[in-house]
Amino acid sequence: MKRKFLALCAATAALMVGATAAQSATTLETVKARGKLICGVSLSTPGFAAADDKGRMQGFDADICRAIAAAVFGDADKVDFVLTNINTRFQALQSGEIDVLSRQTTATFSREASLGIDFGPTVFYDGQGLLVPKSLGVASAKELTDAAICTLPGTTTSQNLTDFFRTVGGKFELVVLESPDENRAAFYSGRCEAISSDRSDLASIRAVANNPDDYVLLPETISKEPLAPAVRQNDSNWRDIVSWSVYMLMAAEEKGITQANVDEMAKREDPEIQRMLGGADELGKMLGLDSKWGYNIIKGVGNYAEVFDRNLGEKTKLGMTRGPNTQWNAGGLLYAPPVR
Amino acid sequence: MLFLNDARFRAVFYQFLAISLVLLAASAMYATASANLAKQDIATGFDFLSRQAGIAISESSIAYGPTDTVARAILVGLINTIKVSLLAALFGTFIGVLVGIGRMSTNPLLSRLMLAYVELLRNVPLLLYLFLWYFLIILVFPPVRQAIQLFPGFFLSNSGLAMPAVEWQSGFGLTFAALAFGVVAALVVRAVSQRRRIQSGKANAGWIFALVLLVLPVLAVWASGAISLSWSAPEAGRFRLTGGLQIRPEFVALLIGLMLNLSASVAEIVRAGIQAVSKGQWEAAQALGLPRSRTLRLVVLPQALRVIIPPLTNTYLTVFKNSSLAIAIGYPDLVMVSNTIMNQTGQAMETIAIFMGIYLGLSVAISLFMNWYNARVALKAR
């Protein structure tokens, strides 16, 4: 009896020491040793991350994960997707349960400063909007004083609404529901006059309505929502890998390299393309990756435009236009630093 | 090991050892957690409580706005939790007692019906019922612009029930004090008159005095003109009804869910308690000529109460803790407000520690109160 008790004490002590020691390996080493990338994505948000009828995770955020996996392993399918709850997403990242959080997450000052995480480059420039039924006859968000507005909990969304109505000088009733499905049901049934979220998300909500034409997106964008992947702080190498995997997608679009023509492009003389695809210079080695990392990303998921069009573009159910998410030389905000 | 052979020393020594080990483990965990948080550059400490909350809470019993502090936002959540648990416990117990008695009825239709009620409520998880009630409310009732008018001024819709309300301009504190005084005075008179009745064996008019004492102070305050009230009725705004008293569907769904769930447990506890009273008591009361209803009220229930109170305490604790399921249907209780705060400040450990501490404290308070009540009704050896 006594011996058992002592053993228990020893085990407890060992557990606590172990908890401190586990953090020392770098993320890249951990991922390589595991043979898979673990990526945190949204719960059923069509267009960003949702399983298709064959159970394969589809979506813009999921493809960002695949691009990182392709950079690390040369195989875009070496990813395990973990569905993260909106309230525990940062904890999942902090605790090491996931390697990267690619989950429609807005980069903000206080998140970066106090959560022990770093954001990568913005993959999607979004803004918070409001969706209302057409029958309300509302033309502007400013008219929505005294209305009830549905949102998801614990996000910047409710804070932005509070700020917005404080500047407009009106009140509103906030209805906060935990699950996205419940939120939609409350909105469609008229429990709230409007539903507020990122415009990309609203496009997805509108797309799944019985009759999408009954709903209109109000013109106001009440906040800036730069959506970016996040990694744990203090691992520059891993952050670089995530950042440059995203930049590679953008740079590939700029250079006209696509999933289909990447083999052909690799033969071109263009020195920048050579550097990107690993023909000249062994840039990948500097990050601890294969020299063909760029080639592998594009071969695996295509360039930014292909990822966007496949998941969110006008031919999909979401029918989103590129908006600010176009290349810098076409008046957009996508600007990848030079690969050299 | 001479000391260890001493039973008195051993008793103290092992307890001391156990407590020190627990404390040691707790402090080691605390140290590890703080060291790890510091290493990951995650902010720690309770400074965030005095920061501006910046969130809107749609249901609040005290004055609250987004510019108030985080601590006040947590307080709003706490009051919401207490409000819904208290009402659920009150109504749930009332329904539960009736169902429990109905369950033992000699009328087969009634007793079977009550059996079905209890089993249906007890055997499905509360969370699913909460979803059911909430979706029933928001899908069955019309949107607020087509609200059903029950009576003039009473509107029912999927945004809840809006009804006229009285607003206090002044004199609220005075009225409350008068009411409290009235209640205390009435209780004292009642106790005195009851003692006299037992001593003399004759009925007296004490209850009339008690009633007069209960009402008189409030009437006096009112007559003195210190109270001014204003009437606020719901009015159709552009989107919804404004003004008056608004009971939101999230609150109602949670209240119904908790209340019915509790009533099923209470029904079974009451039934068990009544059946624990021996049959001889019933027969003795019958022999004295007491009708069935009075037998139940005067003979059986007081004895059953002794069996009922301890499991009832558990049930009340459960309803209090279950109120945290509010987060599923959007009622801003303690957990939901804390979760939002956790998400915005990133200080998960502290926030969770706060709400766990509050739940622990209040649960202990509930059980202390119930233990006191249990000791009061317990069989006293005379």
From TrEMBL, chain A:
Gene3D superfamilies reported in the protein's UniProt record: Periplasmic binding protein-like II
Species of provenance: Aminobacter ciceronei
Keywords: Signal, Transport
Family: Belongs to the bacterial solute-binding protein 3 family.
Coiled-coil stretches noted in the UniProt entry, renumbered to this chain: none
InterPro entries: Bact_solute-bind_prot3, Solute-binding_3/MltF_N
Span of the signal peptide: 1-21
CDD domains reported for this sequence: PBP2_BztA
Protein name from the UniProt record: General L-amino acid transport system substrate-binding protein
Domain Solute-binding protein family 3/N-terminal: 36-265
Entries under Pfam families matching the protein: SBP_bac_3
TrEMBL record, chain B:
Chief location category: membrane
Protein name: General L-amino acid transport system permease protein
Gene3D superfamilies attached to this UniProt entry: MetI-like
Family according to the record: Belongs to the binding-protein-dependent transport system permease family. HisMQ subfamily.
Membrane topology designation: Multi-pass membrane protein
CDD domains: TM_PBP2
Spans traversing the lipid bilayer: 12-31, 84-104, 124-141, 172-193, 205-231, 251-270, 352-373
UniProt domain ABC transmembrane type-1: residue ranges: 78-370
Keyword annotations: Amino-acid transport, Cell membrane, Membrane, Transmembrane, Transmembrane helix, Transport
InterPro entries, alphabetized: AA_ABC_transptr_permease_3TM, ArtM/GltK/GlnP/TcyL/YhdX-like, MetI-like, MetI-like_sf
Pfam name, any one: BPD_transp_1
Subcellular location: Cell inner membrane; Cell membrane
Originating species: Aminobacter ciceronei
